[in-house]
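User: Please predict structures.

Assistant: First:
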Amino acid sequence: MSQTIATPPTIRLDSDVIGRPVSRTEGAAKVSGTAKYAAEYNVPNLWYGYIVSSPIAKGKITKIDAAAVLALPGVKQVFSHENVPSMAWFDRSYKDDVAPGGSPLRPLHDAEIKYSQQPVALVVAETFELARYAASLLRIEYAVDEDFNTDLDKARAAGKGFDAPKGKTGFLPPPKPKGDAEKAFKAAPHQVEAAYTHHAQHHNPMEMFATTVEWLGDGKKLKIYDKTQGAPNVQQYISKIFGLSKDEARVISKYTGGGFGSGLRPQYQVLLAVMASLELEHSVRVSMTRPQMFSMGHRPHTIQDLKLASDDQGHLQSLQHSAFAETSQFEDETETVVNWSGILYKSENSKFAYELAKLDVNTPADMRAPGAATGSFAIECAVDELAYKAGVDPLEFRLLNYTYSDPTEDKPFSSKRLIDCYHEGAARFGWDQRNPEPRSTREGNLLVGWGMATGCWDASMQKTAAKASITAGGKLTVSSATNDIGTGTYTIMTQIAAQTLGLPMADVTAVLGDTTLPAAPVQGGSWTAASTGSAVQAV
């Protein structure tokens, strides 16, 4: 048995496990219902917590009346800021591995309301139904602060923007300006000015967030089954807040029913579940409702402005891309939005800007190619418009302005095969047969549009580890704390291990999603297969 994060060896080529269709190794468990998710673990004598959410966006709680709730047989406790158990004092204890700058949300910390649907109380009872009913009897009075703003356009008009701060993992500030973008724009024969707005978008994966905390009756020892994209991230978060050792806070997340980025950071139900379990010295489950799934982070409302200009041949003369995005009053959530324009297209005259505005909303969160999905959409739409104005084929326009270096760091890319993708895609699609005239191509009574666009993402690698053991009979087990969020990680790790050692997949078992296993980062950023897969290959 061994553990390593060393450089992986060359993969064996005498096996065809990778690159051919296979049934998912975890597929049978999922379709048969034997795969257990966070709210499905059969913990004995379990109590249930129901979260009460604020109906106002800004203000203060002035009174809580829990008498009717506590009078119900089977209700165990009502937690609020008035009786919240002792937790860590400093903000830094509430920061997780991927937290942005600022002061993280501290559930039930005080009477202040910072956004609509903020958790304000937790009712714990013997059954879920009783906890839910009891929560409906809780009487909370609020002093509403009418001076609140959730409107990004209003904040922009009022000049409330500020330059996005550095510090968040994965965030790159906009590239420095080159040349005189405005002068070049005015002098160019073909110009496009465009604005694109992306309103807030919520993740809403199929599995709602839930945490089942099993009280093991040995001091503070807990077994925490959590819906997350990073069990080790949740472990360090909980350990810091409640002063637990890693042995006392074991986090398990074997299966996650979709995340899309919503599970990168620990959500507030895990803190509330652990808090209740420790205080009541009992096993507790806390599950979000579907409406409460809208109280978490979201893809931020973002407004983008682009100004592009080219010569008659289609060479970019000016490239200007700015973004204005929302964040909360207490954290500065940042995305790499405008940088993708400079990564995709070269111009001697360029200018980029990215600003945030603080609104009375919850902190936005990473969601499916954060920043890239937003920024790439805008630049690709604008490039198409400019190519049409200049009378240049949209693919040819992209080839003319292709860049081989990253202006963010002024370095060549370690690898970029986008130009090969352009040529391969054009050949397979029959792009040379395209009629550029809009509404010119029909199939029967249907109009057929021919178009293309570019999407890109960086190939990140993260420090990770894996462990392997093999029996005398040749049965191999590989393990890592990384999660499977529905992306087939169990199958991928099994394939890599099988091909590396030349074993049948049936003789390999992958074990994931447990903090007692070798450490791994959150599953996000499209780095898990490359990072944890390399560790599996190397071990």
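Second:
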Amino acid sequence: MGVPRSYDELPSQDLGQVEKKEALLIWGASSSIGTMGVQTGRLMCKDPKSPFAAVYATAGPANHDYIRSLGADRVFDYKDSKVVKSITSAAKEDALVIRHCFLATGQLSLCQAVLKEFVHSDPAESKTTTKLGSAPWIPADAQDVDGVEVIFVMPSAVEEKRLEQFNYWIGTYLSKALSNGSVKPSPEPTVVGKGLDFLNSALDRMSQGVSCSKLVVEIGE
């Protein structure tokens, strides 16, 4: 989803405290990057310079408690035929708007449908552009929705900038977050076996569908 730099580390970008009136939506929250998205969102909610007041997430019912434990305020069943209505109704009930969504895995069109409901949510503006960051590649035949900007999340194509981004994301942000316990490795790993002989077994299990777990093949001590 792209980890936002802490403004505390960038004093020149001091934006002051902002009104917290948004819910951040993480779609596919039980996937590896989805769980990280939930945890990142939780930290953003604590930042007085972030507009987010809550984290909404989608996942299968069996994983709802786990996703809540990572920091999601509300979790919705992505298989529910009324999931879009449930999410938008919850936001209105909480007096929040949804203008940002991170698609870790799942259907792009459902995320667009949620964001579309909040394109005209600001009385001060005739139309507000909402933003959807997608981890999966965006299909060529994906429909354009007026007021919903969709981007494929990827690092900079410029090598110097890309290395600088990864140095911050991994060497600074994640390293610090893991050390102080504000972020924990997720989801829980499942060790398939030890040795390269287990690679095919791991791939077979992955092809059958894996939910809220990382498959691990150990290759050394």
